[in-house]
Amino acid sequence: MSTSAPASTPSSPSPRPAGARKAAARLRAPGRGPRSAGLGRAPRRSVLLTLLTGLVLVYSLVPLVWLAINATKSQEDLFTSFGLWFSGDFALFANIADTLAYDGGIFVRWLLNTVLYVVLGAGGATLLAVLGGYALAKFDFPGKRAVFAVVIGAVAVPGTALAVPTFLMFSEMGLTNTPWAVIIPSLISPFGLYLMWVFAAEAIPDELIEAARIDGAGELRTFVQICAPLLAPGTVTVALFTMVATWNNYFLPLIMLKNPDWYPLTLGLDNWNAQASTAGGEAVFDLVITGSLLSIIPLIIVFLLLQRFWQSGLAAGSVKA
Amino acid sequence: MTPPVRTPLRGLGMAAALLLGLTACGSGGESSADDVQAALEEGGKITVWAWEPTLKQVVKDFEAKHEGVDVELVNAGTGPDQYSALQNAIKAGSGVPDVAQIEYFALSQFAVAESVADLSSFGAADLDGTFSTGPWNSVNLSGGVYGVPMDSGPMALFYNKDIFDEHGIEVPTTWEEYVEAGRRLQEADSDVYITNDTGEPGLATSLIWQAGGKPYRVDGTDVTVDFTDEGSTAYAQTWQQLIDEDLVAPINSWTDEWFQAMADGTIATIPAGAWMPANLESSVAEGSGSWRAAPLPQWEEGASASAENGGSSLTVPEASQNKALAYAFIEYATVGEGVDTRLDNGAFPATNKHLESEEFLSREFEYFGGQQANKVFSESASNVVEGWSYLPYQVYANSIFNDTVGKAYVSDTTLAEGLQAWQEQSVEYGNQQGFSVNK
Amino acid sequence: MTTPTAPAPVAAGPSPRRSRRRSWTGWAFIGPFMAVFALVFLAPIAYSVYLSLFRDQLIGGNTFVGLENYTQALVDAQFWGALGRVSLFLAVQVPIMLFLALLVALAIDSGRLYGRDFFRVSIFLPYAVPAVVATLMWGFMYGNRFGLVGNINDAFGPTLPDPLSPDLVLASIGNIVTWEFVGYNMLIFYSALRVVPHTLYEAAQIDGAGQLRIITAIKLPAIRGALVIATIFSIIGSFQLFNEPSILRHLAPNAITTDFTPNLYTFSLAFRGQQHNYAATVAIIMGLITMAIAYAVQLRGMRKDV
Q1: Do B221 and C59 touch (CB under 8 A)?
Q2: Residues A305, A173 within the same domain
Q3: HSE (CB half, 13 Å, CA atoms) of A138?
Q4: How distant is the Cα of C171 from the closest Cα of chain A, in angstroms?
Q5: Distance to chain C for B91, nearest Cα, Å
Q6: Is A11 exposed, middle or buried (0-12, 13-18, 19+ CB in 10 A)?
Q7: Which domains, from first to last, does chain C contain?
Q8: N or C: which end of chain C has fewer CB within 10 A?
Q9: How high is the ipTM of this complex?
């Protein structure tokens, strides 16, 4: 993300109100350039430190490399060749074509389902977290002290035991086996609420809200026109977190969905993996591997595109706590 | 090897059930074969939960044959996953399918809870004699017929002939010889194992069944669990030798490693139900020509006892609103034209008509080097030991098999001790559920 | 920064800088969140509490049993065994993961790395991999016949122990979880470090403080809030361990029992044993324990004195 170009120092004078300037500085925090700003010299780079950190890097990447390499192998080569190197024919494109075409192209359907769940679920979760975090940071209302305690307490209850009660309730409401059964639970992101809370407290100066109120703006207008733009970096952060959570969603869809046409990718791949264990079923481990690779590529792309925003949002959030 | 439990059987034995149809007899009242015919004429929609792959074609054919009938086939999970989905749906009172595939070992659990309908009045009572004994006894529970057999898994020993030929070892006909063959294979080549096993409840119970053991006795809600009888002991002692001497490969069935091990000669034999050929053909293509089928080794020399391993029935959940149409589909799939379709696609029948037909028996399996393997399976089906029953909560019992008996594969615990622990936990659970177990 | 009026429990949100008028307006903004939250969390939990007072048998039906399920759970060796296992996991895996994450964050933040941006992105990447895929992937790699472990053994002789044996499987799961979340936590720490005013370091350097001293005296205290919140979410994550062991079970059926973790145990009770009432009871007890520990960590972590 950011380059190392030095930026203005945090202490530089500014005509803007103090609070806003501080918030603005935070928002730009990651772009603020490394230590060079201060004493005017960059720290020496260290080969040793780079190598040591490189160990963690290797640890992080080896399984992904393994996945990428094995996605290029045919089912037979998969078992007979060394896992961390290419072998036999380069079957990546054949595997991708097979994955996309298998069982009437259901993989594409699963991919689209996942996108739908991410857009509605993660989008909605972000909206709710932003609104809620804003309320916690900028309003004093009855029951406020209890809100976060209740949220954390509820999250601490193991989800598997809640699945059946949730299933029974959703069934009563006619939601099971519909996309809503996946989307509605995805709307809640406790960590997102927490992040928006600390972020809003930092990023929005109270004076700004008060000024808007004095001008006669309604609460909604104040939020939409004045506060929402200031919350943008934090919003992107929460959106990324909820996207990952929704993309990775596995257990609840497993309980709620019976129709493969509504499966997200995680469930679909698990299904393919289990297929080998059905009498008369066809083992498709090669497709599971290629499908796994394909399923994480979109997320990685989104990460790379948005990480600049992400960082600044996280920074403002975590500095506080 | 593979017990049907979480897996194999599905294929073959599965049960799909469909249920609902639309018609008439949804609620209460006596139903009759006439209702079934009427439901077919009236048409309607039913949902079938099944994971058995050959049913896809059967559904298509059925819909083509009966205009106005719409069958939705849903794979709601395999084995236990589907059962808990079914139980949840029943509990919720909505989303219950009209037909559900249920494996034989799991059926009594649903029958006891009256979750699935007694199909006698729809015409299932007239099917006595239609199916081989093992499967038919499995669906006949306390005076009712709670499912119709869809397939079966009479056991056989599948073996890689090339391996035995190479090392000059005879194919074992008793379990004693089997252990000995395992030793000789290991001596000849430490990469070759007589079989693989990491503990599977389906295989263990089937072998005990073959040995004449009757660890489970069920009389209504009075249940006895006893793994110290002669058959169970014979199994435990023999299999303990295989484990102690590391003669079985520690490879989990139904994994990528397993298929590869069957292809590359690591595993010499697989004792399994007659559904196995379909899996060999589809997932171990390299083994074609090397493998053969033989009668299951015997516990007593010269005997010809066998057991069922896996297989499913098709049932109609009690909550179905269209039982008559559901039954019409079941009938088509299990005794009607659907059977031929399924056999063509690799399923193994439960119907005597097919098991005894000349065409079936004389079929030459290219995979087995031209062997008429169905003769072995058909013979096995007629030699299944009578009197076996599963627990009315076998799904749970099987789920904790690896917690208890599985210890024998990874620690100093013996199989006999493992079976004892399994027994204790099964007894405790049964009593908690209101059965009277070992009392 | 916690002040006496800080919002409650866990973690510490910021406290208002000045008192505002108390009004219900705030509910207009938090209302939507809480409404959905009530539907997908509070209602099922309330339902579970209700369920926990009954016992539904296959034979005999549903009866009210009061607190009997709770007294049963208190002496349930399987439950406590599972809790012990995740506690061990928590005690070993979480510190390792957070320590690694912190080291990497400090290294990247120090500006002394070549290719800093590449490091940051790459180490973070595993977080993008769904747990299901991560476990399938590591499961393939753990295979000691055809997986990476098998490859290594073939190449160098059988030297590596089986990662899926009962003795090692917990560590193998810990490895998967660590792999998934090091980058995630690293980024939280790194971002917190980025906003520490550099003037502080400069002043310290001028005073002659070494790097280590700057880290312990300035950097760590400055990101204490991030450390606490990461710890709390890691505790909840450890106590709810489910996806990784449940998927890995297909490969290690005898090593990973059905009561391996509290969450697996409740799954087994509810989905295999149809013991919904007892499963609800165990879940509620587990929730209470988790909350208590999270609260204790927060209290301790937020103390002003180090």
Answers
A1: yes
A2: yes
A3: 29
A4: 16
A5: 11
A6: exposed
A7: 76-301 (1.10.3720.10)
A8: C
A9: 0.85
